[in-house]
């Protein structure tokens, strides 16, 4: 299992509104291998604005790659380049190595 975190820095006051977009993201939820999504809001580490941490959990990397190469992914991200509330973003990938759910394995 893997988690992909997309950390999106936005201007102060825009975090809640931007998080609503993820609340209505249905196409990712229908992708094979998708497990769950969580969106966290906090202060930016850079000291300006807010930070959204969008975490998606996937069964495996192939499932995530299928999502990023899908038409649904392209459609859901269309027009995001023109959003002037976004200050920057970074994408990271992690593999689940310890969890109470997998301790018996």
From TrEMBL:
UniProt cross-references to PANTHER family, sorted A to Z: HEME OXYGENASE (STAPHYLOBILIN-PRODUCING) 1, SIGNAL TRANSDUCTION PROTEIN TRAP
The molecular function terms of the Gene Ontology recorded here are:
monooxygenase activity
Protein's recorded name:
Antibiotic biosynthesis monooxygenase
Domain of life according to the entry: Bacteria
Q: Which Gene3D superfamilies match?
A: 3.30.70.100
Q: Which UniProt keywords apply?
A: Monooxygenase, Oxidoreductase
List each copy of the ABM domain by range. 2-94
Q: Does the keyword Oxidoreductase apply?
A: yes
